Amino acid sequence: MEGNPFFEKPAPKPKNWFIIILQSLVILTSIGIILYLFVISPNEVDGPSMEPNFYTKQIYFANRVVQWLNGTPIGKTTGFEYHRGDVVVLQIPNYPAFIKRIVALPGDKIAIRDGQVYLNDQLISEDYLPPALYTKGGDFLEDGGEAQIVPPGAVFVMGDNRPVSYDSRYLGFIRNDWLKGKVFLRVFPLDTFGLIPTGTINYNQ
Prior knowledge:
The protein has four helices and 13 strands. By secondary structure, the protein is α+β, with helices and mostly antiparallel strands. Strands 1, 2, 3, 4, 9, 10, 11 and 12 form an eight-stranded antiparallel β-sheet that branches.
C-alpha cells in the first residue's frame, strides 16, 4: 500500500496565526459586547453628590443583571434585587446618568423632619453617612411636610452628600425602568479598587 495516495496521511497544513488571532479578537469582542449590554456597564462619577463615598472621575462597574431580574421570582430567589442602601446608576429622560443610593422601596413611607429621615414613621440611621448629617427637604419631599409613599415599580433615592445632591427630594420617585444597575465594583483610581457594599439602614429604637 506504500505510495498509494488513498492510504497516505496528508501533510498537516501550517497554522495561520493571523486567522487564529483574528478569530480570538472577534470572540473576545463579542463577549465584551454581551457583557456590556446585559451584565455590567462602566460608569464615571461626575460631581460631588455622593461624597465622601464617591468622588468625581472615579470609575465603577454596575451590575445590570439586577435590573433584568428585579421583581421576578428568580431575582427573589437569587437575591438579584434592589435593596435599601444599594448604590445605583439611573438615567431620567433628558437628564445625564446619575449615581445615587436607594433609601426607600415600594410601599415604604418616607418623610424628613428637622433634617432627619424617617422611614415608615421611624427615625433611621444610615451607616454610610457622616454622623449628624443634616438632610434638608426639597420641592417634592419637604422638611416637615407630608410623608410620601413609594408606589409600585419605583424607588426613592438620595445622594450621600445631602446638602448638594439633586435627587428624589426634588425629582420625585424614580421609576424602575430608569435604573441602569447596581454599583458593585470601583476600578479607578487603583488605590480605591474594591467591591462596593450595600449600605446599612437601621430603624432607631
